[in-house]
Amino acid sequence: MENGSSSGDNKSSPKPIRCKAAVCRKAGEPLVMEEIMVAPPQAYEVRIRIICTALCHSDVTFWKLQVPPACFPRILGHEAIGIVESVGENVKEVVEGDTVLPTFMSDCGECVDCKSHKSNLCSKFPFKVSPWMPRYENSSRFTDLNGQTLFHFLNVSSFSEYTVLDVANVVKIDSSIPPSRACLLSCGISTGVGAAWETAKVKQGSTVVIFGLGSIGLAVAEGARLCGASRIIGVDINPAKFQVGKKFGVTEFVNSLTCENRRVSEVINEMTGGGADYCFECVGSSSLVEEAYAFCRKGWGKTITLGVDKPGSQICLNSSDVLHQGKILMGSLFGGLKAKTHIPLLLKRYLNNELELDKFVTHEIKFEDKGTSHWGHTNVTNQYSFINDNKRLSLKHLSPTQGPRRTTCWTESSLFLRSFKASSRGNKHEYYHLSKSLGWTKRRSKPLNDGRPLPASHQSEASII
């Protein structure tokens, strides 16, 4: 076994890589940690080594889904950060060794839509939940050791030590930014912050209502806070989320289960004196979109839907209301952000201590199988975490008790997990050793943004074939 970067003539002729991946073989069944083959990148493609990946609720949705566009076996995961290991022909944006964020939304920079400031919906590579590479239909870069094709997911497939992406789906970033923070902008946090900032263009002093205070809803609150909203009202069925939401700028809370015989829209309309300026549906329910539209302010209110609903779900609105009330209903993919333009801007705001990414991460676990019977974490609201049982990796839904944010999974083969803390001397991270009894032992500390490459003991191993 040697490290997952080649030497000698491999720069001009990348070879297949044998590495580990968490493979979803059947809907709803535990992911199987197994060795796979990752093919070299073709023209306009990039092969990257995943440093760490976060678990997004969309992964769980498609893990459980049994109807198209579900397909198996598949490598899930789409919120991550990695290092470019090799590039195919005609790739000029990145080179080997660059730090990149993979994104499920393509940004080719060539089509009419990508050149326009009005849309982030690439027309050259339209968004779809395809099992293939975006530029090469019916083509996968993954196979298992028996030669069976493994399907891609959302153009990324980050639950693998190595993956291949189209160059339209990678964004080069500053390598000094903490990976477990930067990876959040690969999907979820960009989606929520962008929905408030770019899609809705929330104005200072406005009133915002957020339906669903999961990680996306909290990211919307963070975006609304950055835009200067004066009131941010969270709507959820879990009262514990209000305390969490306060950290993200939520000023008021409505528990939809305690509205008695009144609709939530009636309560919100009363609270806001006629409706909110901006309403965000972050759950993925057509009925909640209708409800959010109902308590949106007539004349200028905007309702933005971000949640992923079941295939075939429909929204039913009264045509007279649409005509007479002058409201706006719009969808928002990836927060309306152009990945290669807006992600660097969000990272700059993070470095300037404006965008607070640290508070989104609740747990960090290790990707590699060490045979430990339980890698799960408790007390995470509406969050799914990995449970590593021998060589099977499960996605387990945990009881809603605290804050619904992100679990990041490190793919380095190290014996340490990282727990990030803020100190009066600046941001630092401390290494902790995870004992067999799952107890924590502090080992050492070093600067968070030191920019140095990971030591060899912290890098994943892979075979170059």
UniProtKB/TrEMBL annotation:
Its cofactor is Zn(2+). Coiled coil: none annotated. Pfam families: ADH_N, ADH_zinc_N. Residues 216-338 form the Alcohol dehydrogenase-like C-terminal domain. Keywords: Metal-binding, Oxidoreductase, Zinc. It comes from the Eukaryota. Residues 44-174 form the Alcohol dehydrogenase-like N-terminal domain. InterPro entries: ADH-like_C (IPR013149), ADH-like_N (IPR013154), ADH_Zn_CS (IPR002328), GroES-like_sf (IPR011032), NAD(P)-bd_dom_sf (IPR036291). Residues 444-465 are annotated as: Disordered. This is Alcohol dehydrogenase-like 7. It comes from Camelina sativa. The gene is LOC104770782.
